[in-house]
Amino acid sequence: MAVERDCLHVRGLKLWSHVGVLPFEQLEGQWFELDLRLGVDCSAIASSDALADTLDYSQLIASLQRQARELRCQTIEFYSERILDLVEQLYGAIPIHLQLGKCQAPVPGFGGLVAIERYRRW
User: Fold this and answer.
1) Under CATH, to which class is 6-120 assigned?
2) Measured between alpha carbons, how far is 117 from 122 in angstroms, rounded to an integer?
3) What is the phi-psi region of residue 57: left when phi exceeds 0, alpha when psi lies from -120 to 50, beta otherwise?
4) pLDDT tens column, 64-85
5) Following DSSP, what letter does each residue of 30-73 receive, concatenated?
């Protein structure tokens, strides 16, 4: 029987990184948008109101911003794997769902969002 989980959401996190195949993407960088959903058990914090009983999302956001500044790669698939690894380093083996989008994909005549959606232990 599946266990129902509470979730912590971080939505609309804008990250500047050097991810892409084209030379200007590698040299200049570009904006990405990240949505995260983390499966957590909120019963302890809901009872205690103690910060030690919850995930520190400010630490998560700062770590993701630092990672984005330092990362150099070609694909959002690779980038998304680094994000999953980082979340796991911070919080352990929890369910993670992410959507990582390239805000302005360099495709002539296209103004939409290109994104990858990934799951780990969900």
Assistant:
1) alpha beta
2) 12
3) alpha
4) 999 999 999 999 999 999 999 9
5) EEEEEEEEEEE--HHHHHH--GGGS--HHHHHHHHHHHHHH-EE
Phi then psi for 30, rounded to 5 degrees?
-165, 170
CA Rg value for the chain: 16
The yes-or-no verdict on residue 5 having pLDDT over 90 is: no
- Which amino acid type is present at position 61? I
Of 94, 13, 83, residue with least CA distance to 55 = 94
- The encoded tokens of residue 80 equal 């998304």
Burial 58-91 (b: 16+ CB within 10 A, else e): eebeebbeebbeebebeebeebbebbbebbeeeb
Q: What is the pLDDT of residues 19-32, one digit of tens each?
A: 999 998 899 999 99
Instruction: Report the number of secondary-structure helices (H) and strands (E) in the chain.
Output: 4, 5
Structure tokens at 109: 């005549």
Whether the predicted model's global pTM rises above the 0.85 cut:
yes
**Dihedral angle, C-alpha 57, 35, 29, 73, nearest 10 °:** 90
Mean model confidence pLDDT for the chain: 93
